[in-house]
Structure formats: structure tokens, C-alpha cells
Amino acid sequence: MDGATSDTRWSTRVTLGALLCAALVVGGLVLTDSDVSATPEVRNDLLFRAARTEAPLTYRHDDPSGYVQFFPGSVFVHRAWRSGEVPLWNPYSGGGFSPLRRLQDAIFHPLRLASLVVPERQAESFAVVFAVALAYAGTCVLLLRLGRSRQAAVVTSGAFALSAHMCTAVQVEFPVVYAGLPWLAAAFDAVLLPRVAPRGAAVGAALLVAVTVAGPHPGVALAVVAFASLIAVARAVSLGAARHLWRLPAMGLAGVALGAAAWVPFVFEVRTGWTYKYETTLGTLYAPISWKWWPSMVAGLVDVAPPGTYGELMDAFAWLGIPVAALAVAGLGMALIARIRFVVVVVVVAFAFAMPGPWMEWARSVPGLWTLKVWYLFGILPLAATLAAALAWDGLIARAPILGRGWLTAVVALLIATAGPARSALWVRPNGGAVEPPSAVLQALRREPGPLRVTAPPGHVHLQNLASITRIDDVRTHGATLSRRYHRWFSLIDPQVLSRAYPSTRVTPRVDHALMRSFHVGYALEPALVTNEWKADPQGAPTNTRHIEASSALELMVDDGWVKLWRIPAVRPRVDAARALVVVHDVDAAEAALRRMSEADIDTHDVVEVPPLVDVGPRRGRIELHAWSRPSLRTLRLRVTADAPALVVVQELYEDGWTATVDGEPAPVWPTNLVARGVPVPAGTHDIELSYVPPGFVAGVVCSVATLCGLLGFVFLRRRPDPQTRDTHTSPSTT
After folding, report:
1. Is the pLDDT of residue 302 over 80?
2. Which of 182, 178, 112, 93 is nearest to 145 (CA)?
3. Rounded distance between C-alpha atoms, residue 413 and residue 323, angstroms
4. How many CB atoms lie within 10 A of CB 62?
5. Would you say 320 and 381 are in contact if contact means Cβ atoms under 8 Å apart?
6. Pairing mode, strands 453-455 and 523-527
7. Average pLDDT, the chain
């Protein structure tokens, strides 16, 4: 048996063993109804806390928390797939949005789909545990491919697999994406330096790129692909295989095309959406890093800094611990002495990008780079340190054979695994986070008839996107990319919205504004506990208004000591006929018209956007709603009777991609009042169906399927011996 075949079999055993351990851990969590992710934190929401019998917990995550942004969407996607639906539209948060166009929910990621085998309460734990297992196995495979010994791979792989981005993040987007980093680096290395089956390695690299692209965080995905490419390119150049570098972009493009179904709709969203990264001064915290950050960042690396030393960034920092840091420094020294250039290049570049200083000022002007944040890139440091640490371990064994003993290996591995226990969130907690305790406020809302929509000022109540769990429609939302229409509409209601919360969050105390009532917002939740204020623009006007600007017309329904539930009067029905029409032809004109009416306190007109040269005609009819149903998340059916030609207005968010039929015949869907949907109907009784498909989704699916067929043909058709399949594996001393 040759060395390559033996290494392949050993790698297979390690991978299967890691997956088996992960399956056993998840099985134990399911049997004990426990959790190792941060999902129980949702129980700290005041809407749920009112029903708790134990003492109130200290709230850990403010409104801008990534946890608030990602976890509710994960629950929504899990429920949708389990019910047999593709989650193309979420009708509950922010008036509605597409999880696919937001990208963060990663609805097609393999770990997301695999988690469907466990109950909802353990779905997040499933993703975290298997991500850690895959990261460990992938690091072992990568180290073996780079010429390290099996013992070094087993010992040091925990430095990456148990780093903060893998097991201390409060949401799963970091571990899910970073788990593929070592696998992608190994696949790229196999493409550039093939031992056997170069076609299979190329297809594997494309598949891994597609999985990365389908992940929940585009910034982290960019870091993963770039760093994996750096490792492979640096090694190929150091071994004189630069002539094969063209294979890397070829397989990268193939992977991007294969993942088109996941990212093409996101591109449409970025093109038509509002994102704080481009619209506010908090778009990046990456390039401006200066020397003053370095002491605390280095302290975080070796996990010797006390809690609070570096504030809000602490949870994002990947701990290496003193044992790993010492091995990494020793390995870097050995690489310099032995002139193993690719290790030196990888470590230096990783630190330059993940711990930037004044030398990175140029990144401010580079599209894509200037939107990055330090914690997006910090996960590459543990892998860079692992490469150097593995080299050091092999070197120490060569000089001190006693280190090769199994018991000492186990001790060192344990030290590495526990180097940062104070920073690790990998502990078991009872109670999954998707439970809805029967609080008085929730019970009162569920007794209300028909579709209802709530809002709230800044505070820890029905946290933004929590509607994805409770399915109580909340006009507020929290997302990195928002609909530009939605942003404009919210800014008309509250011009200070960006100074009330983090810029990706929409909250306001102006709950009884005319535009709120017009959008069917009939209830407001007022928290007893408020969040810290966040301002998107440091130059913006500060505001101290945190509670509802209650008018005498608001009706107090419930006050349980934690939450007040108010009823907002004179709310427009969810489905209604348009009032007197103001016809415009673009979104700018619609915003200007709504602003004029708002300033003049006119609430008797509707602004409808129609293409130029389209005759709207007289639309003065009134309607009667007979039936309302939602056969699927992306479909809405109505039966109405109009006494004259009318414009049926549905108070749910308009997005490109919504289509309509009236009595089975295609009908236009016109944006109304910036955010609502308008469907013209003639007089009489009509069945209306609105359905949604994200723009670019069909094209993305076609591209993905075509690329998959091409890759399969590349592997199985016209297979010929490749002269480059010779074994380029070199000994540890030469790598």
C-alpha cells in the first residue's frame, strides 16, 4: 500500500470518527432536551420572561446582536423545510422579506438541511456540533496533506476546531462557514498538486466553493475562500508548481456557478436594497484599526485578558491559548530556519489581515474589503497558528522522542482543547430556545381575530425577527440588508430611526403614526427594560426617547409588569380598497408624495407607482373581503367583491418578484404607499392570488443544475490518464 492510499484511508477514518462523535453528542442533547448553542438566550425576551417562574436573567444581547438577527430566521427556515416548503418568503418580520435574498439564513446549506433530522430545539446545536467535528477532521486532512505527521494532526487540530469562531459565537454563521476552511484549503492544494484523481479533486473543490457561497455570511465566506486560496497558492509556488495556478480560478468560478441558486437572488437584493455598510458611517470596523487595539487583541489570542478588557469584541476573538501560541511561535521559527516559505507567508498574511494596523488604510477604498470587520477575519488566525503548531510538534518529536508517547500526546491535546474554557460556550444548557411560554401578552394577542401586526420601541420585547418564531407579525426587523422601500417608509415615520438603534434594526416609539396605522399596525408592545442606545451616524442627532410616545387614543390591554400591550385605534384593514389615487412613476416620486401628505396631515389618499404610459383609469370602487388564506408562505389568496373598478391594497411588503392573477388571469402588482401591494380589479366578485419568486432564483437554479451536470460530465466522460497525477507528496522536512 503506497503512502497516499494509506493517508487517504486514515483521513477517512478520522472523518468518520469525528462525525460519529458529533452524532453521539447531538443524540444526547436530543434525549436530554439540552442545548450547546446560545439559543436559550431568546428566553430572556420580556414577552417570554413574564411567564418564567425563576428569577429574571440578566439580558446578554442587545438589539443589534447578531444572535437576534440570525437565530429566529434559522427557526423559521427549519419549520418551513420540515413542513415541505422552500422558505422563499417570510411574511412575519418587517412586513415580509425573502430569506433567500437575505442570504444569512443559508436555506440551501448542507448543515442547515442536515439539521432537519433533529427537533427544532436542537437544530442550532446540531449545526454547531457538526461544524466543530468537520473542522477538526478537515484540519487533520489538511495537515496530513501538507506533510505533517498523523500525531501532529491529531494533537494540534483542536486549536482550530475549538477556536472561538467555532464554538463561542452566539449564532451559527461563523462555525458553519469556517468549518469548510480546512477542507477547501486541502481541496485547492489537491487541485494544484494532485497525487491521484485530479478530476475528482477539482470537482470536490468546486463543490466546497459552492457550499461556502451558500453559507450564512458573505463576509466570512470571502475570508474563507481567500485564505484557503492563499494556503494552496503559497505552497504550490514554493514547490515550483506555479504553472498549475490557472486551475484554481477555474474551479472557483465553477463553484460560484454551482452555488448560483443561493447567491444570485442575494445580488438582486443588494442591488435594490438598503445596507448599512454602504449607507452609514458604521459600515466597517476593519480598516481603521490602529496600534492601540493590539495589546488587548494579543491578550485575547492567548486568553489571558480578564472579562471586559476589550468590551464588545471579546466574544468575536478566537482564543488560541498559551500552549497553542507557544507551539505556533516555535513552528514559525522552525519554518524560518528551514526556509519553509509557505508557512511563513500564510502566518504573516493572516495576522496582517486579521489584526490590521495602519498599513491597511488602503482597504478603505477597496470594494468588498472596506465592508469587512475584524471578527469576520479573525477565524483565520487559529488555522494559521495550527499550521505552525503542527510543524513545531513534528520538529519537537524529532528532537525529543519522548514527546511521541501516547500519554503525553493526550495531555497536550487536552491542554489545547481547554486552553480557553472561560471563553468557550461549548457547555450543555437545558431548554431549547424555540419554546413559547404562555405569557399574558402572548395569550391576549392570540385571542385577537384575523391577521394582526405589532410594533414596539427599542427594548427587550418581541426582539426584532422574533416574529419568525411566534408568527405574530411584527413590522420591525433586524437584518444586514433591508428593502430600500421599507427603509424609506420607516424614515418617513421616524426621521431619527438611525439614531434609535443599530442601523440594521428598525424601531421607533412613534407607534401611532398615520403610516403605521395605514400599514395595519394595530398593537404596540412597551417593555419595562430598555436596551442601550445605538447610533448609526455619530454625527446624527441623539435621542433619549425610549418608550412609546403614547397618545390619549391608545388603549392599554395588558400590563403584566414586564410588558404593556397597547391597542392602536383606527387601523386600516389588512386588505382594503385604495382611496383617492396619487399616480406616480418611480419610488422617489412616491416617497416625495407621501412626505408631503404626512407633513400636511392628509390621510385620505394612496400613492401608487405604475410604469409610464400605463392608464390606471378610475379606481373609485369599494371592496368587501370574503376570504383570506395563505396556502403557503409565498402565496396569498383573496376573494373580494368590488362595487366598481378598484385597486385592492394588501398591507404586506411589496418586493420585485410578486405576481398576481385575478380569476386565473395575470394581473399587475403595483407598489402602493411605498411598501404595500396594489392589484387592480374590475367590478364584481373575484379570486385573487399573489405569489412570490425571488428575482434571479430561477436563473440561479438553472445555472446550478447546468454546472452540476457539466462537473459530472467532466469527471465521468472522456477519462484519460493525466501526466500530472504523479505523487508530488513530499516529506515533512521539505514542506
Report:
1. no
2. 182
3. 10
4. 20
5. yes
6. parallel
7. 82
Distance CA 637, CA 689 (A): 4
DSSP line for 433-501: TT-----HHHHHHHHS-S--EEE--SSSSS-TTTHHHH--EES-EE-SEEEHHHHHHHHHH-TTGGGTS
Q: Cα Rg for the chain, rounded, in angstroms?
A: 28
pLDDT at 43: 65
Give the pairing type, strands 646-650 and 575-577: antiparallel
pTM of the model: 0.89
- Please compute the mean of the pLDDT values over residues 6-24 and round it to a whole number: 91
User: DSSP alpha helices (H): ranges in 545-611?
Assistant: 587-599
| Average pLDDT of span 438-461 | 83
Cβ pair 107, 99 in contact under 8 A = yes
Per-residue cell: 294: 493590539
Query: pLDDT, tens digit, for every residue of 526-561?
Result: 887 665 555 555 555 555 455 776 666 889 999 888
| Residue the block writes with cell 417562574 | 53
Residue 723 makes CB contacts below 8 A (sequence gap 6+) with none
Q: What is the b/e burial string over 159-198, where b = at least 16 CB atoms within 10 angstroms of the residue's CB?
A: bbbbbbbbbbbbbbbbbbbbbbbbbbbbbbbbbbbbbeeb
Q: What's the helix, strand, coil split of the chain in %, to 5?
A: 50, 15, 35
**What is the Cα–Cα distance from 252 to 258, expressed in whole angstroms?**
10
Query: What is the pLDDT, as a whole number, of residue 59?
Result: 45
Amino acid at 603: D
Q: What distance lies between CA 60 and its chain's CA centroid?
A: 20
Are 69 and 63 in contact, with CB atoms under 8 Å apart?
Answer: no
Positive or negative, the CA dihedral 420, 422, 424, 430 is: positive
Residue 105: closest CA among 436, 480, 485: 480
- Say if residues 130 and 123 touch (Cβ distance below 8 Å): no
Separation CA 131–CA 133 (nearest Å): 5
For β-strands 665-667 and 670-672, DSSP reports them as: unpaired
Q: Dmax of the chain from CA atoms?
A: 93
- Rounded distance between C-alpha atoms, residue 179 and residue 258, angstroms: 19
Q: Which residues pair with 637 in a beta bridge?
A: 629, 689
Q: For the chain, report the end-to-end CA distance as a whole number of angstroms.
A: 23
- Three-state SS for 226? helix
What does the block give as the cell for 267? 445580488
Give the span between the Cα atoms of 537 and 550, in whole angstroms.
Answer: 27
Q: Name the helix (H) or strand (E) containing 234.
A: helix 218-238
DSSP 628: E
Phi, psi of 699 (to 5 degrees): -60, -40
Task: Read off the DSSP letter of residue 195.
Answer: S
Q: Where are the alpha helices (DSSP H) in 538-617?
A: 587-599
CA-CA distance, 720 to 91, in Å (whole number)? Answer: 52
DSSP 513-528: -HHHHHTT--EEEEES
186 Cβ neighbours under 8 A, 6+ residues apart? 138, 141, 142, 145
- Give the β-pairing of 477-478 and 505-506: antiparallel
